[in-house]
Amino acid sequence: MTFQAKLSKVTTLLLLAGTTATTYADTQSKTTLDFNIRYEGVQQDNILKDASALTISTRLNYTSADYQGFSGVIEFEDSRQLAGVDNYNDAIGNNLLYSVIADPESTELDQAFLQYKSDKLTAKVGRQIIALDNQRYVGHVGWRQDRQTFDAATLNYTATSKINTSYSYINKRNRIFAEAKDLHSNDHLLHINYKTELGLLTGYSYLLEVDEGTPNSLDTYGLSFKGKKDNFAYLAEYASQQANDNGSDHTADYIALEGAYSFNTVTVKLGGEVLGSDNAQYGFSTPLATLHKFNGWADQFLTTPKEGLVDLYASVSGKVLGGAWSLVYHDYSADEATPTVDNLGSEINAVFTRKFAKNLTVGIKYAAYSAGDVGAGKVDTDKIWLWLGAKF
Question: Average pLDDT in the 373-387 region?
Fold first, then answer.
């Protein structure tokens, strides 16, 4: 059976489930509508033209009522350009003379899944969001107008109040590029949480394989620990990765350390992240992650350099004028330096957001990246965003 036929069958079952459940408990069903209007501007110190985009993302979601543990979700997503502000490379082949703003126009089925939920077990089958931990390895890339979802089956089991396990099998990655770069895959995600008095201990195994192209595999095994004591929050994480691409084997490690202290309404954070290198030939990779959250908002390291990446950062955040603000500084360098690549630059990030009532959010965000060694292939980059979001 083709995927389209499977999807049609799932959608039919979903609608039937929703209709049946509504008969018994109509007040539990829910329909939501989200809008996000955003301006993005990009300036780079290269031959590409400055880019600007004014886009709107619309997401319509129907969640059925629960009937004896069964429920369903169907969700559509649309991304459009507004007012003719479309001078940008949309990452799928349009306007290549401009800098990239990865928000192509699209209309697609964002989610469509059936779910069963009991006291300890939740099972979900269909197109769905999967977001694990801080989304360093698996996330929805919700910053972009066309977010990432997966065609998958997921089981989540809460064995005790302290132990939770989940497993997902993914056979398609619905990426942020309007279906143009979606990938069929054979991915296995195993994730275990254990709560202790000092914090949350997490173990994971992410075994990834893309069906298209040459034989490949990307296997990552790791442990993380995070917690909070009074005003102090902390995080430590280590992972090991084995990669095979068309017969070439590589290994690399990942290390993250972070500490934050809150003074009333202001929080100061210091941290470091190392995406290791294999003899300056391969950099640690997280292809399913919400990458915009990490290593600077200018998105200069969506792909880890083959020399690896060391990101040392400091931030201060707080509340003002009824909203939230944050300032972040990043210092980048190679994990395994070469004669031409060592200094990978630095970056300053700033953001302010404010909510009005319960359903309206406005924000402004800025990123300024300063390039390092010429051999790294980076250039000075400035980005700015203004947005208005609404949920009904």
Answer: 97
